[in-house]
Design a protein that fits this description.
371 residues; alpha/beta; Aspartate Aminotransferase, domain 2; seven-stranded mixed sheet; three-stranded antiparallel sheet; 37% helix; globular; binds pyridoxal-5'-phosphate
């Protein structure tokens, strides 16, 4: 998908701001950085970890979930994974059969359909997140119309990549009704759970009382704690499902990297102040971009997503706009990566650059968007 733009990027002379990459300009909390991990102080640091995860990380995960959601989960129902990507892959391996379908509200995180496809199953796209403010939106009817006898799960993500939206309660209710009616698993992707910009933390989806026996929560160290390269996350859910997840975990990565599990446990236990700072900085970055480009505010996450058709003469394909952005020194992601209905949209990551570089990127983009 990016191929037509690759040559343009390769041919570009001068600085290039890579706002297509979903990562952070921050370093993780000091206690969780690799330079704070000494094998002399941490016995067996380079050995395998237990399949379920290091005890200290499992305990830290239980404490973190309790702090964030107010819900006490059982440590036995937690599984450490090599990031949410591998976690979702393991979930699909454990709970989805080849030929099954997974409801995927769109636009979406670009990797999810491929994860489902690796299991021989199919992600069914349902345009939703760009319609949340439409008073005529009937989310239940949309989910219902997409269900077939092969539907096995719904995937929900909030705060959301790429729109920066938090799912409103009525849409969550709609998903729950459909999940109950069709006896579906619900995959709650919580990787942006700490990156909300309102005063009140949004209630994590999986905590809804009607979801507890069918919801799996997928957490990651990548986003909130700026540890994407560490490849650590954790999943929890109902006990029978988690037993299947644990079995599948043994045959996928066996265990997440042990040194990074130590780092993750430290970040979860000692990172609250760091996290509050990161949230404030990302919120500032989001405001810097939306104000600079005249776009609506976002509610959380690290991305914003907008329809570039006005800068493409109303065309359905935003490639010419993306090319002009590259020529001006900024790389954005084509919206088509987030769903077949979004070929004229583009995604921008606002957490990847420090404020001064982001300001330069915004100035360049504003130049493109003023033409
Ligand atoms: C919604 C969503 N889920 C999962 C992931 C993957 O996270 P991880 O780095 O933990 O594999 C991402 C990464 O961008 C994401 O945006």
């Amino acid at each position: 998908m990016f191929t037509p733009l690759r040559e343009r990027i390769a041919a570009h002379v001068g600085p290039l701001h890579l706002l297509n990459i979903g990562d952070s300009f921050l370093e993780p909390p000091a206690v969780a950085r690799t330079e704070a991990l000494l094998s002399a102080e941490l016995p067996h640091l380079h050995r395998y970890a237990p399949v379920q995860g290091l005890p200290e990380l499992l305990d830290a995960a239980v404490r973190k979930v309790q702090r964030r959601s107010g819900v006490a989960i059982d440590r036995a129902d937690v599984q450490v994974v090599s990031g949410a990507t591998a976690g979702l892959m393991t979930l699909c391996q454990a709970l989805i059969d080849p030929g099954d379908e997974v409801l995927l509200p769109a636009p979406f995180w670009p990797l999810f359909p491929g994860i489902v496809a690796c299991r021989g199953a199919r992600a069914v796209q349902i345009p939703l997140y760009d319609r949340l403010d439409d008073p005529a939106l009937d989310a239940e009817a949309l989910f219902e119309a997409a269900c077939t006898p092969r539907t096995a799960a719904i995937y929900l993500n909030s705060p959301h990549n790429p729109t920066g939206r938090v799912l409103p309660a009525p849409v969550v209710e709609a998903a729950i009704q459909v999940a109950r009616r069709h006896d579906l698993w619900v995959f709650c992707d919580e990787v942006y759970e700490d990156l909300y910009f309102g005063d009140t933390p949004p209630a994590p989806l999986w905590t809804h009382p009607d979801l507890r026996e069918r919801a799996f929560a997928i957490h990651s160290m990548s986003k909130g704690y700026a540890m994407a390269g560490a490849r650590v996350g954790f999943i929890h859910g109902p006990p029978e499902g988690m037993a299947a997840v644990r079995a599948a975990q043994t045959f996928t990565t066996y265990c997440a990297p042990r040194p990074m599990q130590v780092a993750a446990a430290r970040a979860l236990d000692a990172g609250d102040a760091w996290l509050a700072d990161a949230r404030r900085l990302y919120q500032g970055a989001a405001e810097q971009v939306t104000a600079g480009l005249g776009l609506p505010p976002v509610e959380g996450g690290t991305f914003l997503f907008f329809d570039a058709a006005p800068w493409c003469g109303g065309a359905a394909d935003c490639t010419p706009f993306l090319e002009r952005c590259i020529d001006s020194g900024v790389v954005l992601t084509p919206g088509a990566a987030s769903g077949q209905a979004y070929a004229s949209w583009v995604r921008l990551c606002f957490s990847i650059l420090p404020p001064d570089e982001l300001a330069d990127a915004v100035t360049r983009l504003a130049g493109v968007m003023s033409r």
